[in-house]
């Protein structure tokens, strides 16, 4: 999610900003540009490059823009749900981009539909537009947004663009990441700071939990729309979701990962191993940390094929059975006859880990000790990272010993919660804390109703 | 370059083999399949995935196939030159794929055209087809190939497919890599062994310098068509061109690179640096070796954007001047305020190195010490790696001190030739030697005429 | 516009039905299929063939469907406005296709938006969906549709598809064409009967003015939702819009056109001409009628290029000035040295007529007498045929004599209103009358407000 | 086939010229442009519009060009065979476009291949390039072309473009059409004069049988390369192949067709019929002539769907059995209860005629009398119109009475050879005669060898 206000190449800058955050969503992309008169939308399913390959940005002038990359958590991969969403009335237009999950969206929607409203999408993002519209008679847009946000329960970061302002809002716990920067005179907002670095912008500060920023030609105005609670930024952003060059809540992601590797080595060393290797790309930092802490050589035991793309033809089961590999291949020259420590950033279903253990053993590894640089994931995420249920999570249903057997490893150990916090949280007074609900079951945001619904569902 | 004889999914296997070697050529790809009756070609400009995305391999049955990925060394990016080339006459067809460079191709072509032959491409590969055609009255195809090869001067690996046989040939010095493997009963041939690993094949042996293999339903036959000389496999294949998981001439590429990093640390240590970093992806192995040898932490100081593809919209000069980055971005959290050792695998023109030094300094690096894990490249390659002239090579025209100033680094040092050989050549009796002509000027293959022409041109 | 209920190849049949009516709208096409559980939409801008070229109808099973081809009367050529429109709520879905124009749509929309509704399109069709939604608490869908329709003023034909029924409605004057047919046990509905003939269906009857048909698995039910007034089917459907093989309101279009030509010959003969020619394709029938009545030879004086399509590269002005032609070319061998009667079906702006007169004269025609097989068009259409204003209509601003000079003809005459009626209306008790508002200014449907607005606007 | 010399928009003009002649070949298109330095080719399979839709003619500057549309007579629809063919050597380039058929091409090719030449295509056109290449040591290009042409037997029209000249050649009988025109100072050449009319060029004269034109910046030079024999222009060009607005050998095609209809009415009238109708588009002229001569009304009994294109989805057999129609549909309002004379331009296999007779009868026609405005086609064409064998020609195997039964008509009659000649040949001293070999079996060009081979094959 990326926004900019006050730059005459707003659409292009947004394109590069989204491009830097492509890893956050590969199912769709869109940009809405404010050209001073109205809002112009270009969006489609697919990667940023593909969506914009035929766009000539000269035909797309404007001064402000918001953009979004979509990660389809459910199989609703339809065009309509690709964001930003734009809502046009006879008098004005509003564009909305959203990252996170509104937990009471369905309930709000049901009420609105009964009163005669028609929804355009199945996206939880759309409820905010309708809540705003219901207010818009006698209120300013800002008042309508605040009234709408107060009815939402969940984890969210919103960018809202109208003909004359850009609004930026973060949920009261700050579960999703959102940073503010400057590019010359322009304001920029992004889910990750790697977007600032790619466009040459400077980091200004984090958007605060419960804060609404109103950005216009008069400058920036900050409003606290809900009482701020201690920040609980999603731990999985550090573990695997964000880019290593981003700083989240003032902590560099690569550095936090390397520290997780170091903590992991302290907690669960393998002294008699020959080499340490990591699963590319997100586990490399932790693997190097682990190797340094243990004094073992770090080697490339597994190579990722860089050319797997949308058009790659998947091998048939028959060919896979014959040994045709796809995304990852082992480096025989490195692992043959060796005792290998394989660092992975997390285990969700366990299927990927098993595939890699098998690859290494087929390539001649004598032993494979799996070390995971995050805790056991035993609970579903309610805040938008994915939509897995408890049943699908291997650690929710198995001990370490059982997991070891399932993934065919010689041993398996996980980093502790304490180790994870130590690696991520520099200083409680500065970056406060993390949301580790998927590891601990301690959900920072949950309505009574949701709680019941949640236990019924998962 | 990939070939297979004796597998009922020949086209698909070739697709995966080429895919594993995509890094060897990104300008075009093609596969010729032998379906028992005739040769069927599918080729186009572009990446393997793009070229074959609409191909249904079920419509492309066959028992043998050869494939090629094209690296357009010159700006001749035309469809016709994409390989394999197929030559059809009323009585038979021949497909040819070639890796390397035929130094006397133009001279041969001129003679043939004067005698009335019409060429279809501007590729040096085509001369072999015409030399073979001129022989084909009273000779076997094998005799025609040998007669043709004997007229060629250069570095070459050829795959030739006819309706009833597959031929494999390597130049007398073995400058280009070429390996033989088995996949069940089938024979496979590939430029790099990573192709074997991706398809589940086993490595059998290197094709020998000056050897012609004839593979058919009767099995494999080896002929020595020219006196074998000590092998001189191209050093740049180890330095940056090949994939780390390939074994070239029995030596693993990642391992040789890590050893180059270790040798480099021995020759040119930087004792008071804070971190070691490498330019992704080809310099990572060396950087880790360097860091381990020096006892310094290895960190990700530079990140490569994985989503740059054909459809990426390049930023305008105006945006680049404003700081918009493309392929690489520095990790501020890692380099800010630090003294950084930056390992790169080679310096050719020096422009990339300068860009990275600048990125690191902009991100706050206090000092940047550049260490190159290969020797100074002072001479053009005549054997197909690229077509740069002496004028374009920074090391051919500048001392280390000058290079340091040009790339804006705090110091620059190169690995020695001896260190390079030590890292690559395990044992002279086994893998003999390397072609380091671009570093030493000592060209293993050169006709008298070529020699003159060469000095006139470069 | 096409609908079918009760056929297991509903989507395919709809495709062929739309294809037969491609001439009614070339800017977009869509089909909504009812697969027994929900509504599935496929639509896009472009011709029917292009929109559906990648669709495999086997993936699109269903039992009922509605489809639409879009004629963008205004430059709003956006994807969203392509029909059918689909409205989904948590409990049900509704698809709507519409042909015609709702004159009070903007007023209704403004009221709904003030009450908090959000519209998805700029199409006048969408108001019916919102009017229905507002009713849907305590009413059946049928009651909601009737309540909605009663609020609309204009000329309209609607197809509405829900999970369990298909609804068909025609405005109280029956200005737009709409016929009912049978295909085996299935019911089919189409704007023109040529769609029936292409799919092998039989014509059953016209949909009546002010009639709502409800079609479901229980069969067909007819409701009169507004008092029926004498039918006034749009005359321009006969003049040029419909296909010659369609029967509109029980009269064949080709036959009515030929009769217009015959009437025109009676009213305005040219006795000393050499040949009669017509502008392809819509004027050919009239030209043949004219020639037969006058006893003059009919010849192809002008040829239409059949291969002009979306991808045709328009000649630059420079090339057009040099004589490069596009769509039409004269047949010199037919017109050189001749006195030509050129029959055209209508004159709107006059630019096309002038172009053809010029073509004929450049090809050597001695004289060109233009005869128009419809009356002078002096008033804008308010019912959906086009959106031209009075200012743009040549006959609203010029006498025949002036038009003759503007289009550079030797004489110009028009068919009278009486002649037109005589050619179209077989029998007042059967097919009643026509809407000739654009010719006479006598608008059959007009609110007081509209009247004022209309005179302000046009 | 189109060529131009001396115009600064040569490529664009050629595009429009080819577009006008799209009906001559719909399987591929190409243009070669001479930009003063070298020849640049753009070609592909598909229609002219599709092949050039992404071409920006500004990137394609030049002063001379040749273009071709390909009619794949055999199922060899491969890219390589699309013309013009371009042959490049180290010293020069030659482009060739060809219309017709070289009967001894295979024999020549066999000899050349045995001497070591490699062919690029399976096209008979390529032999001329090789014959020229073999000569090019000591001769001018013109001498090489003449020497090559003298070895060819068949019907041919050639356009040859080199860096400095354009050559135009026609076979000694002039079986294929070829006209010369002027566009300002530029020379233009086209298979049909409709191409001149579309680009605003004037007709100059026919290219003569056995004539070679050499066009360059020095102007036009004419050489007789073979003794001219009386011209025998292909009758089928008049019957159905050419466009009605073209003049072939000084006779307008529409006019000749109308005269064929008139002659047909004289030879085979149907006095008690109600209406005359024609199969669109090529039979309309004849049908009008027939109707005028008989004094019967001409009506549109059959409509052709204008939107059938490459992307049209063909109905399945199941749907066709249910009555779904494709290309043609009958006009019930015109034919129901009537006795219909259906004029078709020719009967080849008889399948199309039967389909139309059935359509008319299903639409209620009482009687269908088929009248064919050309003679019975009893012999295969050897000169490039199509590749049917005697076995496939209905008239080669059946009497009129039998044909009547096969196509389910009430009567069938054909125009006589004499009537055909009378309609086409104005004046033996001016346009001489026609090739009616397919009707009479009297082949104007045939080698002894060919004769034997011919009787063996067909």
TrEMBL record, chains A, B, C, D:
Binding site for Mg(2+): 282, 344-345
Source superkingdom: Bacteria
Catalytic activity: 5-phospho-beta-D-ribosylamine + L-glutamate + diphosphate = 5-phospho-alpha-D-ribose 1-diphosphate + L-glutamine + H2O
MF terms in GO: 4 iron, 4 sulfur cluster binding; amidophosphoribosyltransferase activity; magnesium ion binding
Annotated EC: 2.4.2.14
SUPFAM superfamilies (UniProt xref): N-terminal nucleophile aminohydrolases (Ntn hydrolases) (SSF56235), PRTase-like (SSF53271)
InterPro entries according to UniProt: GATase_2_dom, Ntn_hydrolases_N, PRTase-like, PRTase_dom, PurF, PurF_N
Binding site for [4Fe-4S] cluster: 234, 381, 435, 438
Enzyme class: transferase
Pathway: Purine metabolism; IMP biosynthesis via de novo pathway; N(1)-(5-phospho-D-ribosyl)glycinamide from 5-phospho-alpha-D-ribose 1-diphosphate: step 1/2
Entries under Pfam families matching the protein: GATase_6 (PF13522), Pribosyltran (PF00156)
Cofactor needs: [4Fe-4S] cluster; Mg(2+)
Gene3D superfamilies, alphabetized: 3.40.50.2020, Glutamine Phosphoribosylpyrophosphate, subunit 1, domain 1
Keywords in alphabetical order: 4Fe-4S, Glutamine amidotransferase, Glycosyltransferase, Iron, Iron-sulfur, Magnesium, Metal-binding, Purine biosynthesis, Transferase
Domain Glutamine amidotransferase type-2: 1-218
Gene Ontology biological-process annotations: 'de novo' IMP biosynthetic process; purine nucleobase biosynthetic process
Cofactor: binding details: Binds 1 [4Fe-4S] cluster per subunit.
Homology family: In the C-terminal section; belongs to the purine/pyrimidine phosphoribosyltransferase family.
Listed HAMAP family: PurF
Purpose of the protein: Catalyzes the formation of phosphoribosylamine from phosphoribosylpyrophosphate (PRPP) and glutamine.
Protein name per UniProt: Amidophosphoribosyltransferase
Organism: Pseudogracilibacillus auburnensis
